[in-house]
Design brief:
- The strands form 2 sheets. The chain has a 7-stranded mixed sheet, sandwiched between helices. The protein has a 3-stranded antiparallel sheet with strand order 1-6-7.
- The chain is globular, with a radius of gyration of 20 Å.
- A hairpin with a 6-residue loop joins strand 6 (154-158) and strand 7 (165-169).
- It is α+β, with helices and mostly antiparallel strands.
- 36% of the residues lie in helices and 19% in strands.
Length: 298
Amino acid sequence: MSLSQTDPALSPEATHIIAATFLPVTARRLLSAASMPPAQALVAPGVILFCDLSGFSRMGAEAVARSARGAETLQAKINAILHRVVGVIADHGGAVLYLAGDAVASHWPAEAATEEALRAAITGGLAVQRAVAALSEEGQSLAMRCGVSLGDLWLLDLDAPGGRQAFFAGPALNAVQGLDLKVDGVRLTPSALARLPADIQVEHDGAGGHVRKITGGAAPRPHPATMDANPWLRAHQRAGLQLGADWVAEFRQVYVAFIRQADFQFTGPEELDAAAQMLRGVAAAVDVEGGALLQTCC
């Protein structure tokens, strides 16, 4: 079965649902369909919570080995886990930036109240760890490894073959992904440690500082305004949305390519042109082969 690559029109009533489905909350705060230059880097300073699910690969292998429908069972389990994780993050005022396999990156704005954003992110990370532990079944060993960073972050937004691309990059993401993450506490980058409120107790080991217990950290759920997300949708996404909520398709055989630019390190707007050239090259290569660029993250 193939879907037409002609972009179908979408009703105005669908725009809010589309935005909520396909664009992160933080991106919706920054983007506007009324202002779309060929490429832009929109600053989004804040606190990053990075969570990585430990034990998922083994659980997946065991599920597939036990049953011919192991993939469906695995999908249901990972969906349940990530649904719970996303809810916990939102309950603590965070907004998910992206999901990549069994990893989740989320963001708390910190233009002013940096210390409170750090507290909320750490509290959210500890709550995520408790929630995932509660979802583990007998014989499974699932745990969420978590780390928190503070630093510069940008939303890169640019036109590319197949549709506009918007993704987050910057030192804050690079730093937290390089941490030796813990399953029994939240590891902190040096920048996060330097701004930590004095009442938060930090423990240290050979890999750096981490927090196991914390008080407070409540923050309101983020609720961005409705926006027109059409420019950031792909043709296949629009076509699927046009089919309606009651239509479901399951594709049994697909080919997925993971493409990584190993030396990509975005550190500021002065690197926007190089980043845009790189991503457009990737998008063009995928598009010419009839593929769809599903997600961009770093």
